[in-house]
């Protein structure tokens, strides 16, 4: 049997927004056939240069907290490593060891134990909601609680409701923002990626952190395309997130999201591989052929047929109403470029038939337009 000329993600376009390990995720997706566009949404503040983190570290050493909440393993390890670079690691761990320590999940728990800071409690679900419930049941009014946050800015935190609920319960909250970030410069690759999302040029966009989501939403607002970006993400540009914390800013805005069961980069790549063809491809049986329409190509009986933009626009418009007649005017409106001459439709259909390899796939309905000759509609659709 000859090897197929396609892979699971052949014909699909995926945007990668990661600041860390973007090359790794992009490689995994390309190996599965995807066309990948990568542009980091954020730039991290180097920990040794993070004066805010240094200041908060010294303040906690001088006045240890009553409770410490560790939310991420990489954030806690980075904090301890930064403190070591400042000559404060021993003093920091000594101060934190005096507090009750609550971990949000197994990664944070592993980092705590590696630092000699055993946790008092951790939920099995990695749920901030369960952490809050545990703290409230134990009573936190009047307590000073240090919350290690990952990927924050001075005016944005990844767990805003969590911090607000702690304050509402009477606690004094000390946010420890580890791996703070700032937006990437304007008019670069990331702006082009955001514009591509707004113009539906991707089938999926991947997010590996909530800050990347926030950065895209903020940049879209700055560019004046926030409504278009949200409309795209709510329809045919699928948001693929590494986990529920990453997805939360989108969920609040009514954007459907999808995530793997395990919050790992490899799991995200496999999840995109499994889910995107189900979400973003359309398969019909036409003129005795199995026709699968993907983001940038069409497969006819398992053989990839590369189509130009006009051909893809035409086949999508026809497949949106399989078996039904689509007028030349409607097809003209679907073609890129915004032309007004219906002769462009005839040219696009002719080239589409040639590329597909069987002129019978697209049937002409005299004086009315064109239709896909679907096999389960022998009488013809009106």
From TrEMBL:
Pfam families (alphabetical): HEM4, Trans_reg_C
Positions of the OmpR/PhoB-type domain: 281-374
PANTHER family per UniProt: BLR5956 PROTEIN
Record PROSITE patterns: OMPR_PHOB
BP GO annotations: phosphorelay signal transduction system; regulation of DNA-templated transcription; uroporphyrinogen III biosynthetic process
Record protein name field: Uroporphyrinogen-III synthase
CDD domains: HemD, trans_reg_C
SUPFAM superfamilies assigned to the protein according to its UniProt record, in alphabetical order: C-terminal effector domain of the bipartite response regulators (SSF46894), HemD-like (SSF69618)
Keyword terms, alphabetized: DNA-binding, Lyase
InterPro entries hit by this protein: 4pyrrol_syn_uPrphyn_synt_sf, 4pyrrol_synth_uPrphyn_synth, OmpR/PhoB-type_DNA-bd, Sig_transdc_resp-reg_C-effctor, UROS/Hem4, WH-like_DNA-bd_sf
EC number: 4.2.1.75
DNA bind region: 281-374
Source organism of the structure: Mycolicibacterium hodleri
NCBIfam families per the UniProt record, alphabetical: PRK07239.1
Molecular function (Gene Ontology), one example: DNA binding
